[in-house]
Amino acid sequence: MAKSALEAINGCNLFGEKGASWSVIYVDIDAHNRNRSIFETMLPRESSSKGVDASLIPTISFPAFATHEDVLCVETKANVIRRLKGRYGFKRFCRDGYKCMLEDTKKRYYRNGETKEFEGIECEWPLFYIFMIIDGVFKSHPEQIEEYQNLLKSKIKRDMNGDPVIPMYFFVHEDNIEFEKQENGSQMRLPSGEGSGVKGMFLWNQAMFVISQLLTAGLLHINELDPIRRYLPSYNRPRTAGRYSAFQQGTATDLVVQIVLIAESMRLQAMMATYGIQTQTPHEVEPVQIWSSRELVKVYKQLGVNSKLNLNGRPVRPIGALGTSKVYRVCGMTVLCYPLIFEVSEFYLYRDMALLIDDIKTELQFVGRYWRLSGRPTVCLLIREEHMRDPQFKEMLDLLAMLKKGYCDGMKVRIGRLQNLISSSCIEHLDFMNTVDTSEMTFQQFRQLEHEYIGYQSLTDVPRALQYTEDPKTFQALENKPLHELLDTLRNTEGVYARCQLYGMLLKREGLKYEFNGLTVEDHLKNLYHHAGCLRYWVAVRYCSSLLHHTVDSISPFITTVLVNGKQLTVGVIGHQETVFDKPMTPAEIQSVMYSTIQPYDIIQAVLQQEVVLYCGRLIATNPEMFKGILKIRVGWVLEAMKLYLQMTSDSKPLESHSPYQVRQLLHKVLSVREWATQESLTPLQRRRLEGCLCRVPIHFYVQVWDVMSRTPQGITVQGSHLPQHPTLSNMTQSELNFALLVEEMLNHIQKPEYRQTVVELLCIVSTILTRNPELTFQNQLDLDHLVKEAFLLYCKDNKTEKLDDLTPFFSTHYSMTTGYLARAVVNNVLQGGQLATGSGSDNDIGQEEPCRIS
């Protein structure tokens, strides 16, 4: 609802034509995109703790129309109808105790597990019948209108004047509660006093009822009810001329992303021209100024400042890709900002040209996919001279040549001169700065490089990066040696990575400010970091970066991107404590976590895990389907999956020696294992290891585990972790995200990824057996380790192999064969416990190879 309201009010002057520059509402488009992502990722759920809620109907339909994604709307509405619709109205949500006869109205809070008492006897609210009638009018569904009008008709009461009134809700009388719980819908419900003419009207119902009747009678048009046409996709709404940008809810298929190419110098511009790439220098786009987005952050810090209300303005956080795609008018200047990916930072990622090329493609795809403003997005691509020193600069030229043709991976783009593109751009007037004292504020525009040279200077004069390698060495033997031996070794060592490790030891002993050869340890590390960066010697770059406690620039938004897509993140070294990111954090908090949780156990992983977090944030924004089935992205285990993949492909180079771009490609590869596993002849063991590292589970897996739990009074145990039936089931609901997180946590106690994935398969099999045999239950605790071991023994017996402690041969078998042995182990377990009633179904359906016998 708030998301929709923000879309509607953006650019509105609260005092209309008589308003001032300080009474205009501005909505941050990047923050809005996060809101959209949270909302659409959550659908058809209501929240992490609530699988469904009738309030979703007025959210996706009248009055909010919060999404125009047809599939989401249909799925959400169907979910609400299936789970909440009753004979008297809709339940608000499952286990809703409000107005129930069992509810103790004197208590402020429910006790733990108390909401389970309301299951099946929740009140039903006819208000949502009315919302469904109105929805049917907007969507032109006459059969839906008729259905809910007929349902509503029998619920209408009459007041003392004989006028129709709609009761607030219908409830189950105290005498009928047990009968209703035994058979849902069997008992008559009574109308509430509110809205029945007894205790006055329930005005909300009455208002909506009047509106629905006016609509269905043709006396009110939907355009009169929704004058800003939120029910239409944005590109079908009437255009309103205004000074400020207006939100759109959808994107027209003919959207074009405009691109301005800015060359850092004239000689770079000349070189690009020889390849047919036309660029502009900062001087050539004047009076328009090119800014870093950091300068725009200074401007937005003044937005909403109000000393009377003690408001400090917009937090100092980065401007995202959508925000940098507007042209700004601020303090008499016209400004275009280049995106964050072109910022030069102390973190090493900007040195990898292949990564930058991939980032540009991702950025353009993201802007094209999520642009929601009137006017076209205008993206500034900044080309620096240092880019030319990279061996992969040719790939950058290839990208620019592709963009020149008007397409980027199927999306329309247009390269042009900035002066020609401004008229069709989205222009944002930051008029709130008119009331700000800017006398002490300075804004730094991007400066053009000036070269003092006579005549034409070829860019071949610019030195290119060298390829560098060195034989790896370890210096653990020096850890307990006297300081002078460590210093002597340093003086006699030439290798870059070797020196990094030695300075790391010196840092650990003496600190950053210890002086050696006229420089502090910190200065030596900075010099080594720069030198290794020029050489593109990534293992040394990462090692130094970690010792210097570097943090990825603007990592916070990428963590937030993962969170708003319904996932959680954990960082930490396998075998040691992990830290969970389940809410947005400040850069300082993130740095503290990275260097306290990871670095003590693995120096390089302190920065390598930051890389993976960044890549996950970028990838999930444009390819959310790659993360399906993964509830919690455990970065340490993701790195383990990448290492396993390198072993499978006989790549002897350590993961930390690969370039940032190669690491991102490896991440993409392991996340998409389902797509290529069969084509590349991946063995069952290899696939189980990769999927197990990711802890990816099948669709509806957690619902299946809930069903198993409901038939297992003593709960489930695996690898020393026990998930009890109660209070788990009484405190949570089947589709609750918190329940899924509990199960995922239990699975994470399994240290071998192939074992973990086999346990996932086992739980699916148990669920299938219990579903097909409703008379079965597990009287004892469901010990998953015992079942896996039992299946392994059956495998050894059938294959006449020696019974070993190593289960790898079993995990290496084909899925259909593993399914058979696991199913036999499950049924044997049930039979041995005397828990199988007569007339049970056969388990042959799920892959058993022979009937099982009672031992």
Question: What does this molecule look like?
Answer:
This protein is an alpha/beta fold and 855 residues long. It has five domains: 42-236, no CATH class; 257-435, no CATH class; 476-522, no CATH class; 536-696, no CATH class; 700-835, no CATH class. The chain is 42% helix and 9% strand. The protein has 33 helices and 22 strands. The strands form eight sheets. A four-stranded mixed β-sheet has the order 11-7-13-12. A hairpin with a 2-residue loop joins strand 9 (327-330) and strand 10. Helix 26 packs across helix 30 (753-772). The longest helix is centred in the last third of the chain and has 20 residues, at 753-772. Mean pLDDT is 89; it is low at 834-855. It is found in: Cell membrane. Belongs to the phosphorylase b kinase regulatory chain family. Phosphorylase b kinase catalyzes the phosphorylation of serine in certain substrates, including troponin I. Pathway: Glycan biosynthesis; glycogen metabolism.
- Low-pLDDT residue spans: 834-855
Q: How do the strands line up in the largest sheet?
A: 11-7-13-12
> Average pLDDT across residues?
89
What is the overall silhouette? globular
Radius of gyration over all CA atoms, rounded? 32 Å
Task: Provide the structure class.
Answer: alpha/beta
Binned, the helix content reads 40-55%
Q: Mind summarizing the main beta sheet? A: 4 strands, mixed
Domain Phosphorylase b kinase regulatory subunit alpha/beta C-terminal: 638-802
Protein name: Phosphorylase b kinase regulatory subunit
Function: Phosphorylase b kinase catalyzes the phosphorylation of serine in certain substrates, including troponin I.
Main location: membrane
